Each structure stands twice: as structure tokens, then as C-alpha cells.
């Protein structure tokens, strides 16, 4: 077993992110007393989608069964539009059929959608059972699988139904990225760029120095390891200081406020989550410049890095930009009727403010509209 462990030292549920060379490590990791502080029950359900299950399902099941667990699986459709209470109901039905107990475990094998739904099902089944995250997309590896945010979408907004429920372990196997579609890889790079802007200037500058970051094959193994390790460490650092987003953790939403609105207004069919986050980061950057918080030079550096990652910088011709400001009022981060924005002040640092005029929101979208 070869694994780099990144601790997430939460007082109620401490756990580790294991960056491992193989999915076959999962069984031994879950039975390692130095990693697993709470003994897991015998029954496990692996939740996945058809594509990921075809590639990795049997490997995970074999490893878990070898470690002594009793394993079944539940397969859900792939895609953000299936991230709904109806899909979670399928997990509940399977849990009931398999007679899962409070000592049982759900294992999320897939990207952010599978991870969010499985985590939410675990948070709510029998008032909370264990969940293990095995992310197979770059976005899930560096962001969605870490930190305990779980949930599903409501027709009027993203992740409006959810709960905080920390995993017992997160296993990141970089080898699974080999089967990740190029577009999904690029979407994940948006979250990596986010960490560079909000937390890790060195990571941002390292990405700038690369010739290409839009495909996995252009990243040297050492650079990929650094991207995963520094991104996971940044997420762990922030979450360990603010588990339930009372303050600091809000900075992880950089690009997500307007990004979520873009996803919702395009019915989750036009953009991948990471693509919408990239657009949201561009908009947030323009707002920061408009408010005198950020330099146009750093705004351009962010734009160039987003372009280098092969991410979109334009909205559809028919995008209803006039509806964005009103839709933001349904965002989870609204407090006292005001939308909280995460705005950059320099590469590696951001500020949180609810003093963003509606006109500034509208103006931030104009550079991304055709003909602007």
C-alpha cells in the first residue's frame, strides 16, 4: 500500500484524504487502525454510475470483500440533471432492501454528482450512517469529495437540499483520471485554479508556467501529484478551521455564486459544474475590479489561465443575464436578504462581502456575452 495521507482534523469526525497509487488499497485503508478511528460495520453499498462502475466497480468490490466486508452495489444515471431527490430515493430503496444498519457504510465511487448524492443519502438514512468517498473525477478529487458538503438540486437552485456529513475516508487514485473525458478534466482544472486564486499563489504561478494544462497527458506525474496534494491540502486546511461555513470556508465558493446561477439558468445542460465555476470566477474578477479590490493585471492573469485550461469564457447568445441578480437571492449563502460574494484582492487572497450593487453584477456578465 502506497498512500500519502492528508489529515482533516475535525473535532467531531477527523478523517484522512489518502492519495493512493491504487484502488485496491481501499479495503486495507478502511481496516487500518491508524487511519480508521471508528470501526465500520460489515455491510457496504457501493454507489456509482454505469460508466465508472464498468471501469472500477469490480476492483473496489474485490478489495472490500478481501478486507471482510459484505458488499452490494447501486447504480444511478450519470449527469448533473439526475442529482435529484428521486435519484437519492433509489439509494434509500436499495438500503432498505439490503437491511442496512447504523453501522453500515455507503461508498461513493464516481464524480461529484455521485459523491454528493451518496453523502446526502448517508447523512439522512437512519439519521446518519458512514460514507466513504472514492472520487474518480479531478473536480471531485480536489473539491467535492472533501469537506462533508452533501446534497441534491432543487429545480429553482443548485444544492438547496443538503446536509453536512463528513466522510470516514477519502481515497484519491490519480490513475482513475486516465478514463476521465477531456471535458471533465478541464472542468476539474477550474477548481484547481480557484485554489490558486483564493489560497495558494505558488500553485497559481506553477500552472501559469506550464505550456498546457487542458489535458491530462500534458501534465508530468510530479505536477499532477503536486496539483492533487496542494489542492486537497488547501481544502483540508480551510475545512478544518471552519467545518460548517460560519466564516472562512465561504472562500471556497469563489466563482460558485454566479456559477450556480449560470448552471440553473441553463438547466444544467449547457455547462459542466467546473465550466460554470470558471465563468463565475471571471464575473467575480470583473466585480472585484469594478469595486477597486483587484487589479486589471491579475484579472487578465486569471482569464489567461482559464483559457489555458480550455475552459469557456463566453455565455450562450440567449443567456438571460438580466435574471442572474434575482436568482442569486435564492442562493444558500444569502444572509439578511444580501448575497455574499467572494472577491479576489490579489492572487492567493480573497475577501467576503455582501456590498455588491446589482448593477455591478449585471456589468460583470457583459464581457462574456457575444458582441460585448
Automatic annotation (TrEMBL):
Positions annotated to bind Zn(2+): 191, 256, 273
Pfam family, one: DHQS_C
UniProt remark on cofactor binding: Binds 1 divalent metal cation per subunit. Can use either Co(2+) or Zn(2+).
Molecular function, one GO term: 3-dehydroquinate synthase activity
Catalytic activity: 7-phospho-2-dehydro-3-deoxy-D-arabino-heptonate = 3-dehydroquinate + phosphate
Main location: cytoplasm
Any one Gene Ontology BP term: chorismate biosynthetic process
Domain of life: Bacteria
Cofactor(s) this protein requires: NAD(+); Co(2+); Zn(2+)
Known pathway: Metabolic intermediate biosynthesis; chorismate biosynthesis; chorismate from D-erythrose 4-phosphate and phosphoenolpyruvate: step 2/7
UniProt-listed Enzyme Commission number(s): 4.2.3.4
GO CC annotation terms, alphabetical: cytoplasm
Ranges for domain 3-dehydroquinate synthase C-terminal: 188-334
Subcellular location: Cytoplasm
Cytoplasm recorded as keyword: yes
Residue numbers binding NAD(+): 112-116, 136-137, 149, 158, 176-179
Keywords for this protein: Amino-acid biosynthesis, Aromatic amino acid biosynthesis, Cobalt, Cytoplasm, Lyase, Metal-binding, NAD, Nucleotide-binding, Zinc
InterPro entries in the cross-refs: Dehydroquinate_synthase, DHQ_synth_AroB, DHQ_synth_fam, DHQS/DOIS_N, DHQS_C
Domain 3-dehydroquinate synthase N-terminal: 74-186
Function per UniProt: Catalyzes the conversion of 3-deoxy-D-arabino-heptulosonate 7-phosphate (DAHP) to dehydroquinate (DHQ).
Family (UniProt): Belongs to the sugar phosphate cyclases superfamily. Dehydroquinate synthase family.
Protein name, entry field: 3-dehydroquinate synthase
Species whose genome carries this gene: Acaryochloris thomasi RCC1774
Gene name for this UniProt entry: aroB_1
Amino acid at each position: 500500500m502506497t498512500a500519502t495521507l492528508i489529515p482533516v482534523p475535525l473535532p467531531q469526525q477527523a478523517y484522512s484524504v489518502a492519495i493512493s497509487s491504487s484502488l485496491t488499497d481501499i479495503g486495507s485503508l478502511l481496516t487500518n487502525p491508524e487511519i480508521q478511528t471508528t470501526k465500520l460495520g460489515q455491510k457496504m453499498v457501493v454507489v456509482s454510475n454505469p460508466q465508472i462502475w464498468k471501469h472500477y466497480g469490480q476492483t473496489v468490490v474485490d478489495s472490500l470483500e478481501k478486507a471482510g466486508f459484505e458488499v452490494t452495489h447501486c447504480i444511478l444515471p450519470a449527469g448533473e440533471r439526475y442529482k435529484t431527490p428521486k435519484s437519492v430515493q433509489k439509494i434509500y430503496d436499495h438500503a432498505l432492501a439490503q437491511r442496512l444498519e447504523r453501522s453500515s457504510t455507503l461508498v461513493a465511487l464516481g464524480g461529484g454528482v455521485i459523491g454528493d448524492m451518496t453523502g446526502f443519502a448517508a447523512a439522512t438514512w437512519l439519521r446518519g450512517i458512514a460514507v466513504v468517498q472514492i472520487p474518480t473525477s479531478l473536480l471531485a478529487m480536489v473539491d467535492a469529495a472533501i469537506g462533508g458538503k452533501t446534497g441534491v438540486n432543487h429545480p429553482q437552485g443548485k444544492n438547496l437540499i443538503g446536509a453536512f456529513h463528513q466522510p470516514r475516508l477519502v481515497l484519491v487514485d490519480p490513475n482513475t483520471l486516465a478514463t476521465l473525458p477531456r471535458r471533465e478534466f478541464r472542468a476539474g482544472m477550474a477548481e484547481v485554479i480557484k485554489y490558486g486564486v483564493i489560497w495558494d499563489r505558488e500553485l497559481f504561478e506553477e500552472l501559469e508556467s506550464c505550456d498546457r494544462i487542458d489535458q491530462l497527458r500534458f501534465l508530468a506525474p510530479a505536477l499532477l501529484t503536486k496539483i492533487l496534494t496542494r489542492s486537497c491540502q488547501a481544502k483540508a486546511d480551510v475545512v478544518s478551521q471552519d467545518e460548517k461555513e460560519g466564516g472562512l470556508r465561504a472562500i471556497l465558493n469563489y466563482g460558485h455564486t454566479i456559477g450556480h446561477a449560470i448552471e440553473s439558468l441553463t438547466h444544467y445542460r449547457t455547462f459542466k459544474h467546473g465550466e460554470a465555476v470558471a465563468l463565475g470566477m471571471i464575473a467575480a474578477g470583473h466585480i472585484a475590479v469594478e469595486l477597486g479590490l483587484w487589479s486589471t493585471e491579475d484579472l487578465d492573469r486569471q482569464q489567461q489561465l482559464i483559457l489555458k485550461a480550455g475552459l469557456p469564457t463566453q455565455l450562450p447568445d440567449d443567456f438571460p443575464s438580466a435574471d442572474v441578480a434575482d436568482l442569486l437571492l435564492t442562493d444558500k449563502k444569502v444572509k439578511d436578504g444580501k448575497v455574499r460574494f467572494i472577491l479576489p484582492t490579489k492572487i492567493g487572497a480573497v475577501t467576503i462581502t455582501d456590498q455588491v450593487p446589482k448593477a455591478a453584477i449585471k456589468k460583470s456578465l457583459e464581457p462574456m456575452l457575444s458582441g460585448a
